[in-house]
Backbone:
């Protein structure tokens, strides 16, 4: 409840409005029924005495709400300091001019984050079945390849499972982001691209008629091995920015003969 902008906090404003409403109702009753000032004061005292318990309960509930919010935030901060932060994902790069979309997974936890399968859901259009992923790692991640080899590393999917409009694709082998142990450095991350074809990918015919409101949800399923804790990371993305495409060049962009 901040008052730095000069406005009355909503809780205080609501309470004051309630008291004002009661006074107006009591005054209207005096006018209608001719109650004396003494009886008016007596009725007001009786009403305040009857409702004092509810007012106290309301005040305690408001206080508890803010206390619980502060405790939850304190628990999140403590977990982050101890290295138990939750991993996050985001769309790092949209697909454009033939390139693929890139999803970045950041491991804010001290434990290794292992990604085992990918789920793609879209209730509007059928997203093509992906063949594999390619990924690169942050510089601090342990090298699965030889020294100096940074990837990208490709991992194929096992045969897909289809279930009520969503598809789950299991990786041939899991990929991992190391835990964030060195807090003076940036956390480790994975940059993941999803491949749909072996040859050049161009889904211009599919995405040309789609609006940005047509959303596909890419879900990365994994876990923190040591804690046996499941991790589910959601990355919504418009289908027109998810599938690789080659935009048609305008007449002015075409080379002259």
Residues:
């Amino acid at each position: 409840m901040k008052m730095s902008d000069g406005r009355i906090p909503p809780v205080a404003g609501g309470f004051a409005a309630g008291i004002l409403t009661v006074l107006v109702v009591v005054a209207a009753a005096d006018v209608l029924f001719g109650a004396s000032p003494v009886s008016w004061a007596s009725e007001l005292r009786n009403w305040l005495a009857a409702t004092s318990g509810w007012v106290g309960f309301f005040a305690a509930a408001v206080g508890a709400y803010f206390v619980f919010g502060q405790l939850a935030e304190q628990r999140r901060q403590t977990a982050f300091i101890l290295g138990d932060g939750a991993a996050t994902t985001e769309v790092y790069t949209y697909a454009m001019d033939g390139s693929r979309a890139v999803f970045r997974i950041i491991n804010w936890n001290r434990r290794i984050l292992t990604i085992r399968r990918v789920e793609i859901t879209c209730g509007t259009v059928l997203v093509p079945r992906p063949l594999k992923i390619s990924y690169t790692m942050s510089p601090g991640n342990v090298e699965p390849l030889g020294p100096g080899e940074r990837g990208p590393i490709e991992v194929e999917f096992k045969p897909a499972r289809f279930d009520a409009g969503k598809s789950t694709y299991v990786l041939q082998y899991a990929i991992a982001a190391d835990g964030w142990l060195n807090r003076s450095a940036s956390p480790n991350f994975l940059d993941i691209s999803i491949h749909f074809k072996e040859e050049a990918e161009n889904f211009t015919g599919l995405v040309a008629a789609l609006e940005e409101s047509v959303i596909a949800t890419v879900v990365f399923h994994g876990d923190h091995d040591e804690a046996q804790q499941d991790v589910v990371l959601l990355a919504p993305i418009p289908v027109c920015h998810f599938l690789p495409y080659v935009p048609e060049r305008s007449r002015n962009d075409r080379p002259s003969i």
Remarks:
- The longest helix spans residues 37-81.
- Residues 1-6, 249-257 have pLDDT under 50 and may be disordered.
